[in-house]
Design a protein that fits this description.
The complex is a heterotrimer.
Chain A (H helix, E strand, L loop, with lengths): L25 H24 L2 H23 L7 H25 L3 E2 L2 E2 L1 H11 L28 H5 L10
Antiparallel strand pairs in A: 1-2
Helix pairs in contact in A: 1-2
Chain B lengths: L5 H4 L7 H30 L3 H5 L4 H26 L3 H31 L8 H32 L5 H26 L2
Chain C lengths: L9 H11 L7 H6 L4 H31 L13 H37 L7 H20 L22 H4 L2 H31 L12 H32 L13 H35 L6 H14 L15 H29 L8 H24 L1 H7 L3 H31 L5 H27 L18 H34 L58
């Protein structure tokens, strides 16, 4: 919470804000808008160059820049009390914590007493060139084409589960 | 509006109550999107094959929708400026324009999804498509909710009442826009 | 007293009264069914929570009977079938945490106390407040309705691990599982709305003069708990949507055969599930802080220390979640990290307990009913906390996992939080809530008849767990080599104690009803306490202080202050 004076009551009737906004005219926002559109163009053109690093930078680097521009200029986060920025940052930090804690397990196909049959089969098929990446469909089913759409009734799980995650439960 | 408690009019934390509340709402939304996008990124990094699935998305549609949302954000912030000046009529009209942006976004989305689903890229096709529809679907739900609330806000703003609400719904709308700014590269561009 | 209350914000004041009280009497529906008043919404939460507690307690009775006397019919229930057993256990856990601890500790006490204790006339968003209760009520109806659908209620434990929760072939509850996760998701939405209301109210609507260190501890705790809830529940809400899709749309987020990962659900769940423990703990320790200072007539020892330990606990609670998954096959290196953080979190909590003991030291203690509950909270929670250290060590947990030791451990934490904390707060604020004094004799009888059986339920379970008794066994007669006669005796002792404890609650409800009707009228400030709520009439009217909202002049715990002549308490609203 803020260290502001307590007991002060902000006027509710007027449209003005406690913090007071910088004296931007509408043209300022139009300018920011065009900068955002220019950045959008860059992020679309980026992947066309075909270099992975460039794509990552143009995709996510620019997303961060755009996010900053929107948060600062449209949402006026810089004019809110400091604790708002802290609160929002805290949520992001906790999300990184979640990622750091969960990723070591989720990003593995094998672990202590378990494996993910669907993943392993798909990677095998992918390596062997059986699955073209574009053939979305039942690609990751893994046990062969006859599984079709596999809405949970296919016999894939009957085979897979013995050595799947459940086995870890003992 | 009728009875507003004295509690609502106080601002011991140095910020009007509705604005403070919408920032807390955004904080709680960040973790909702953080959960689903974090899970998606874990899978995306781990599975080489997902890049090929992602190649089936249409970046032009995604880019167009980004453009639509950015434009609606501009009209939302201009509505806020109009409300600051006490021009409720203009604010309401700009809010209607913003809502229209949301509607266009959803129509494009509907067209895009129909095409993809008819080509077999359904939500249950594989985990990539599950994440694709779930993440974008949660986002679309926010667009719908924001649009509906915006219509109510515009209704009161037109009568020059409760003009502070224009800013509040605007902040929320920018947040929805922000989420899309990250969804766009995650789902469409990174291949 | 009236002269000490500065009329605050006069212009708004008049508007306000014109609107709230002017002219029209509120109809029954406006006042009790769809109220906007924070106190009435608090009562709705309180009684919904207590009703759900009765259901959850009855479930416990039914499956405890099956555990101790398998094959015999439980009176009032009948023979418990294996499927019923699973759904009873699952819903006992879910109901007690999501529909009892949360609504009573956070929502009921939060709604009742925050505006009164910070000197406001209501929550900042009364309509959102009402909406959050309505969503909560719907979620309660959904969870109860799951018992009446085809296949019965969900039986895959309150943690809902896939594939048991996502595949109807395994759970055999095609509708029950979806209703369960839907109810939980709705409940989260309700508390997100409520939480925003609590946080904003406490931040923005404090009385003039109330600085950060003048806020009563229970308000701080409910706010910190709401923030923790808000920051932890998001991933699980997203996970809940993913699970509903897995159940009904054929996606495979948590299905390893089709490219998903069941461990991901466990991470999503426990990233919320562990902070959730602290979400319900913090309001309870806040309530205890209020009670031990009033009935010890001493200033809270180390106000800021309590606050910082609460924040520290909150932050640390986001780093410990995978200690629930030590044997799920998580990366062993991560298990080491989570062991260390888990053991670390006992440091701030232990510090908080020491502060409470230091507060009691040298005080002139009155052993009233609320004080007995508060003291027993400290004592019982200590047992829960210390046994947690055994389980936090990953090596030891491999043996202890899923035994009755774990069960006894978390009941020694949750029971003090949800039951003892609630009774402490309820008996302490009863005069304010209902304008009558409770019967002390009945209150103490109820206390002893609850606390003693509580210990005789769960202490034996520690022993059983250490001996290797597994907590998910429906009928131990099928494992004669694992169950000695003394084990059966201890199980029977636990079940008999549970029945005694449940019956003892009749005393409580009798006491509440008779005191409410014919108890002695409560004065404004029966306990000679300092905080604002005791300056309003008992019960406070709509708007809380029709004569004008109070102004704050000092901290909430100025008991037995040397500068204060002639009285051992110094209300926050008295100038000078």
């Amino acid at each position: 919470m803020s260290a502001n004076q307590h007991g002060q009551h902000a006027g509710h009737s007027t449209g003005s804000h406690a913090g007071g906004h910088a004296a931007h005219g509408d043209s300022h926002y139009v300018k920011i808008y065009f900068i955002l559109l220019a950045l959008l163009t860059v992020s679309i053109v980026g992947p066309m160059i075909g270099i992975k690093v460039v794509t990552l930078i143009t995709a996510f680097g620019i997303a961060v820049v755009k996010a900053y521009l929107v948060a600062r200029n449209f949402m006026h986060i810089n004019l809110t009390p400091r604790y708002v920025i802290y609160a929002v940052t805290t949520t992001l930090v906790f999300m990184f914590l979640f990622f750091a804690g969960a990723a070591p397990d989720v990003m593995k196909s094998h672990g202590t007493n378990w494996e993910k049959p669907g993943w392993i089969a798909a990677e095998k098929a992918y390596a062997a060139g059986d699955i073209v990446g574009a053939s979305f469909g039942a690609a990751i089913q893994g046990h062969g084409a006859e599984h079709g759409e596999g809405h949970g009734e296919g016999h894939g799980e009957a085979e897979g589960h013995g050595d799947g995650h459940e086995a870890a439960g003992h | 509006m009728s009875s507003r408690p004295i509690a609502t009019t106080r601002s011991a934390a140095g910020m009007p109550t509705p604005r403070l509340a919408v920032w807390w709402l955004i904080a709680s939304e960040i973790v909702i999107f953080g959960g689903v996008l974090g899970s998606y990124i874990m899978h995306r990094l781990a599975h080489g094959i997902w890049a090929d699935y992602a190649a089936n998305t249409n970046p032009w549609i995604g880019a167009f929708n980004t453009f639509v949302l950015l434009s609606s954000s501009l009209s939302a912030v201009l509505a806020h400026q109009a409300a600051e000046r006490g021009d409720g009529k203009r604010a309401a009209n700009l809010l209607y324009l913003t809502t229209l942006g949301g509607v266009v976004f959803l129509c494009v989305k509907a067209f895009e999804w129909t095409t993809e689903i008819s080509h077999g890229m359904t939500i249950s096709a594989n985990t990539f498509w599950s994440f694709y529809y779930t993440a974008a679907g949660i986002h679309a739900a926010h667009v719908i909710a924001g649009g509906i609330i915006m219509l109510f806000v515009a209704q009161t703003a037109k009568r020059n009442e409760e003009l502070h609400r224009v800013e509040i719904i605007g902040i929320y709308w920018h947040f929805v826009d922000l989420v899309w700014i990250f969804l766009f590269p995650l789902l469409y561009i990174a291949k | 007293m009236a002269e000490s209350i500065r009329v605050d914000h006069a212009a708004h004041h008049d508007d306000h009264h014109g609107a709230h009280h002017g002219g029209h009497e509120m109809s029954f529906t406006e006042k009790y069914v769809f109220p906007l008043d924070h106190k009435m919404i608090a009562m709705q939460y309180m009684f919904t929570g207590m009703f759900m507690a009765l259901i959850g307690g009855f479930f416990a009775y039914a499956f405890r009977w099956q555990i101790a006397f398998p094959g015999t019919e439980a009176p009032l229930w009948g023979q418990v079938s294996p499927a019923e057993y699973n759904s009873l256990v699952t819903n006992h856990g879910s109901i007690m945490i999501f529909w009892v601890a949360m609504p009573v500790l956070i929502a009921a006490f939060g709604n009742y106390l925050i505006p009164l204790m910070i000197g406001a006339d209501d929550m900042v968003f009364p309509k959102i407040n009402r909406l959050s209760y309505q969503i909560f009520l719907i979620s309660a109806i959904v969870i109860l309705s799951s018992f009446f659908v085809e296949g019965g209620a969900f039986g895959g434990a309150w943690t809902a691990y896939p594939p048991l929760s996502t595949k109807a072939e395994y759970s055999l509850t095609p509708l029950g599982s979806t209703l369960w996760i839907t109810a939980v998701a709705l409940e989260f939405v309700a508390f997100l709305l409520g939480g925003i209301n609590f946080i904003t109210t406490a931040m923005n609507s404090r009385a003039p003069g109330m600085k950060m260190w003048d806020i009563p501890m229970v308000v701080w705790m409910i706010v910190i708990a709401s923030i923790l809830f808000m920051l932890s529940v998001g991933p699980l809400l997203a996970g809940g949507i993913m699970m509903i899709f897995d159940q009904n749309l054929g996606t495979a987020f948590f299905n390893p055969d089709k490219g998903g990962d069941p461990i991901l659900w466990q991470h999503l769940f426990w990233f919320f599930g562990h902070p959730e423990v602290y979400v319900v703990l913090l309001p309870a320790v806040g309530i205890v802080a209020e009670i031990i200072t009033v009935f010890g007539r001493k200033k809270l020892f180390g106000y800021k220390t309590v606050l910082y330990t609460a924040i520290g606990t909150g932050v640390l609670s986001f780093t410990v979640w995978a200690h629930h998954q030590f044997i799920a096959g998580i990366d062993p290196r991560m298990a080491n990290v989570f062991t260390v953080t888990t053991l670390l979190i006992s440091v701030p909590i232990a510090e908080m307990m020491f502060v409470y003991i230091a507060t009691l030291y040298g005080g002139s203690i009155t052993l009233s009913t609320p004080m007995l509950w508060a003291l027993s909270f400290i004592f019982e929670f200590l047992i829960g906390g210390i046994t947690g250290i055994f389980l936090g060590a990953s090596g030891n947990d491999i043996f202890m996992h899923d035994t009755y030791f774990v069960l006894a451990h978390f009941h020694y934490t949750f029971y003090p939080i949800a039951i003892i904390g609630t009774y402490a707060g309820f008996t302490y604020w009863f005069p304010k809530m209902f304008g009558r004094m409770m019967n002390e004799k009945l209150g103490k009888l109820h206390f002893w008849l609850t606390i003693i059986p509580f210990n005789t339920i769960f202490l034996p379970l520690f022993v059983l767990g250490a001996a290797g008794h597994h907590r998910r066994i429906f009928d131990y007669r099928n494992f004669p080599e694992l169950s000695h006669p003394w084990m059966w005796d201890l199980q029977a002792l636990a079940t008999y104690s549970l029945i005694v404890m449940l019956l003892a609650q009749i005393i409580f409800f009798y006491n509440v009803i008779t005191s409410w009707i014919s108890g002695p009228k409560a004065p404004k400030n029966p306990w000679n306490a300092n905080t604002f709520e005791w300056t309003a009439t008992s019960p406070p009217p709509h708007g809380n202080w029709p004569e004008g909202l109070p102004t704050c002049y000092r901290g909430p715990y100025e008991y037995s202050h040397p500068d204060r002549k002639g009285s051992d308490f110094w209300p926050q609203n008295e100038p000078g």
